[in-house]
Amino acid sequence: MEEVEKFLEMVKESDNIVFFGGAGVSTESGIPDFRSVDGLYNQQYDYPPETILSHTFFRRNPKEFYRFYRNKMLCPDAQPNITHKKLAELEAAGKCKAIVTQNIDGLHQKAGSKNVLELHGSVLRNYCENCGKFFPMETILHSEGIPCCDECGGTIKPDVVLYEEGLNQKTLEDAVRYISNADILIVGGTSLAVYPAAGLIDYYRGNKLVLINKSTTPMDAKADLLIQQGLGSVFSQIEV
């Protein structure tokens, strides 16, 4: 495919790549995109995911929040796929300067990437809201009802940005800096529908905006190179 050949050539020639990714990066690792309709979800819950994963719902109905969170948001057995691995290789080779991700699964780091900017936090980090004690994902996974701190009895909250909550300011500023200075900005596996994250692409000043996504996005017309394929099939062809 001509577009993929062009993309591979661009990657080969650049040493200042920034990758901006969404849920589509991890679907090939078996992590479901909770926006997609799935019958199991519809049978089990009385509210849409966006409602359950909101700050208001977490406060008002933490027990139901955690029921959904354990069932749908935690995938302890998920492993990095070819896209995660190739990005880690590109970073190790000095070509990829940063990964800006909307994902909360920690798979980029698991694959070996060091400079990962997590816009929406991570399921691997959890804190007591009262005393600040840290808890790993396993604590949430193996708890029942509302997980409580073993030190002070406070509620444990995932270090994940819920709907209605603001993004970490430093993470945002770092993302803007990397994106605005990038030679190539590769955008992959995201519908570009969630703001403010999707708006970060507007900071890119170069002329090598590569958009790789199976479905159409609001930014397709702005892309310098548009590849409507799965990420894995494209990234598997990168030779580092």
UniProtKB/TrEMBL annotation:
<feature type="binding site">
    <location>
        <position position="105"/>
    </location>
    <ligand>
        <name>NAD(+)</name>
    </ligand>
</feature>
<dbReference type="Pfam" id="PF02146">
    <property type="entry name" value="SIR2"/>
</dbReference>
<feature type="binding site">
    <location>
        <position position="102"/>
    </location>
    <ligand>
        <name>NAD(+)</name>
    </ligand>
</feature>
<keyword id="KW-0963">Cytoplasm</keyword>
<feature type="binding site">
    <location>
        <position position="152"/>
    </location>
    <ligand>
        <name>Zn(2+)</name>
    </ligand>
</feature>
<keyword id="KW-0520">NAD</keyword>
<dbReference type="GO" id="GO:0008270">
    <property type="term" value="F:zinc ion binding"/>
</dbReference>
<feature type="binding site">
    <location>
        <position position="128"/>
    </location>
    <ligand>
        <name>Zn(2+)</name>
    </ligand>
</feature>
<keyword id="KW-0862">Zinc</keyword>
<feature type="binding site">
    <location>
        <position position="191"/>
    </location>
    <ligand>
        <name>NAD(+)</name>
    </ligand>
</feature>
<comment type="function">
    <text>NAD-dependent protein deacetylase which modulates the activities of several enzymes which are inactive in their acetylated form.</text>
</comment>
<comment type="similarity">
    <text>Belongs to the sirtuin family. Class U subfamily.</text>
</comment>
<dbReference type="InterPro" id="IPR029035">
    <property type="entry name" value="DHS-like_NAD/FAD-binding_dom"/>
</dbReference>
<feature type="binding site">
    <location>
        <position position="190"/>
    </location>
    <ligand>
        <name>NAD(+)</name>
    </ligand>
</feature>
<feature type="binding site">
    <location>
        <position position="213"/>
    </location>
    <ligand>
        <name>NAD(+)</name>
    </ligand>
</feature>
<dbReference type="InterPro" id="IPR003000">
    <property type="entry name" value="Sirtuin"/>
</dbReference>
<feature type="binding site">
    <location>
        <position position="34"/>
    </location>
    <ligand>
        <name>NAD(+)</name>
    </ligand>
</feature>
<feature type="binding site">
    <location>
        <position position="149"/>
    </location>
    <ligand>
        <name>Zn(2+)</name>
    </ligand>
</feature>
<keyword id="KW-0808">Transferase</keyword>
<dbReference type="InterPro" id="IPR050134">
    <property type="entry name" value="NAD-dep_sirtuin_deacylases"/>
</dbReference>
<dbReference type="InterPro" id="IPR026590">
    <property type="entry name" value="Ssirtuin_cat_dom"/>
</dbReference>
<dbReference type="InterPro" id="IPR028628">
    <property type="entry name" value="Sirtuin_class_U"/>
</dbReference>
<dbReference type="GO" id="GO:0005737">
    <property type="term" value="C:cytoplasm"/>
</dbReference>
<feature type="binding site">
    <location>
        <position position="104"/>
    </location>
    <ligand>
        <name>NAD(+)</name>
    </ligand>
</feature>
<feature type="binding site">
    <location>
        <position position="34"/>
    </location>
    <ligand>
        <name>nicotinamide</name>
    </ligand>
</feature>
<feature type="binding site">
    <location>
        <position position="105"/>
    </location>
    <ligand>
        <name>nicotinamide</name>
    </ligand>
</feature>
<dbReference type="GO" id="GO:0070403">
    <property type="term" value="F:NAD+ binding"/>
</dbReference>
<feature type="binding site">
    <location>
        <position position="35"/>
    </location>
    <ligand>
        <name>NAD(+)</name>
    </ligand>
</feature>
<feature type="active site" description="Proton acceptor">
    <location>
        <position position="120"/>
    </location>
</feature>
<feature type="binding site">
    <location>
        <position position="23"/>
    </location>
    <ligand>
        <name>NAD(+)</name>
    </ligand>
</feature>
<feature type="binding site">
    <location>
        <position position="120"/>
    </location>
    <ligand>
        <name>NAD(+)</name>
    </ligand>
</feature>
<feature type="binding site">
    <location>
        <position position="131"/>
    </location>
    <ligand>
        <name>Zn(2+)</name>
    </ligand>
</feature>
<feature type="binding site">
    <location>
        <position position="104"/>
    </location>
    <ligand>
        <name>nicotinamide</name>
    </ligand>
</feature>
<keyword id="KW-0479">Metal-binding</keyword>
<dbReference type="GO" id="GO:0017136">
    <property type="term" value="F:histone deacetylase activity, NAD-dependent"/>
</dbReference>
<feature type="binding site">
    <location>
        <position position="27"/>
    </location>
    <ligand>
        <name>NAD(+)</name>
    </ligand>
</feature>
<feature type="domain" description="Deacetylase sirtuin-type">
    <location>
        <begin position="1"/>
        <end position="240"/>
    </location>
</feature>
<dbReference type="InterPro" id="IPR026591">
    <property type="entry name" value="Sirtuin_cat_small_dom_sf"/>
</dbReference>
<protein>
    <recommendedName>
        <fullName>NAD-dependent protein deacetylase</fullName>
        <ecNumber>2.3.1.286</ecNumber>
    </recommendedName>
</protein>
